[in-house]
Amino acid sequence: HAGVAGRGRAALTFNIEAVGFAKGAALPEDVSEPPAPTDNKPVPLKTGEDEDYLLALKQELRGTTKTLPYFLTVEHHEGLFVACSEWCKQPVL
């Protein structure tokens, strides 16, 4: 497969004459209006017994996750960062 461009990707070509423009000709000016501004307001939160239960369940899950041995604290991350940065400084043989 030597000489295949793009390592397995299909080579796509685009012919500008096929869409009605001459080669080297200036493209027409943009005549469309910019979109009207929209108000991006947050959706009000749902309240009720079901939502309160799900919030409590989520908080309990977070608390339980932090007690697991797989949860890394900041101290673990700092030690890991120092170990990795020292390892990266070693010369490559």
TrEMBL record:
UniProt-annotated stretches for the region Disordered: 27-47
Domain of life (superkingdom): Eukaryota
Name used for this protein in its record: Uncharacterized protein
Organism: Otus sunia
Phylogenetic classification of the source organism: Eukaryota, Metazoa, Chordata, Craniata, Vertebrata
